[in-house]
Fold 4-hydroxy-3-methylbut-2-en-1-yl diphosphate synthase (flavodoxin).
Amino acid sequence: MKVRRVALPVKLRHMGIGGTYPISIQTMSTVNPKEEVAAVQDTLRLASLGAEIIRFAVPDMTAAKGLRAVVEASPVPIVGDIHFDYRLALQAIDSGVDALRINPGNIGKEERVIEVVEKVKPKGIPIRIGINTGSLPADILAAYGGHPNAAAMVEGALRHIRILERLDYKQMVISLKASEVPLMIEAYQRLADKVPYALHLGVTEAGLVKEGTIKSAIGIGTLLAEGIGDTIRVSLTGDPAEEIKVGKEILSALGLRSFGPTLISCPTCGRTQVNLIGLAERVQEAISKLKVPIKVAVMGCIVNGPGEAKEADFGIAGGMGKGIVFSHGKVLRTVPEDQLVDSLLEEIYASLEKNKV
């Protein structure tokens, strides 16, 4: 892991992006904020699952006005996603959003950009400039060979950034998203040393949950391992709850954040004599209710289990009809197979009660 790039921080309510703030997890609600009750319910649901910033598309003025109810009810910052019509941005600001997602180049003449910037400045509202491969201006595409590439994406971002810099506005977060992972990685790598602003990472249009998780883990994870990135959104075709879950897993796997217990489980092999998959699923469900950052192992073999998982705080390893419960490689007890999970949980809860973990 490389040392994290230090970006100019921006504030969103009680939290921030950039600087030394933790890398945050974002998602986007699928509800139109004009449906105020449904939008509020979805906001509360996503926040309870761990979304730290929630974005809403703002397609029209009714949606922009509906954001007020969402903002007032939300325990986390709300971002208004605006395209083309600067008046939607102005109304979203009046509705109390904590940040905007716009491209200064596509909301009209410069005086309209100035009007938006003048309204966010006194409120300290950050603006995220989002560049996608599908939204590059025609002249930039032509100048870079007619096809999206990393250099063209960076130039597109810099064009928008310069507009805000000329207005002496630096409360920016930048994203350079592509559906092709290598292109996304290269674009962020190229931009990271050119500007001081916080970077929002994501692979856009990543696909369904399985495929999108893989692409996002590779793209976002590679950049985070290089010290690049300040906030992330995993874009999946599915329930945004899955985006939050995957985002947590990416940050946890890199050791950048901890969101509770981590499950370690071995792949099955010819030595496995227990229902390893079933055991792992039961343990995963049980420990998901805990908030402490412990490592719990589920191993399929008594011979190798405690040794291979000796870094685990607690674990179980199965044998033929029985298994062991262990902690940091030390066997605590041997129990029948059908008592393995309950015995494991007893040891975990007893230790937590004594504040040993």
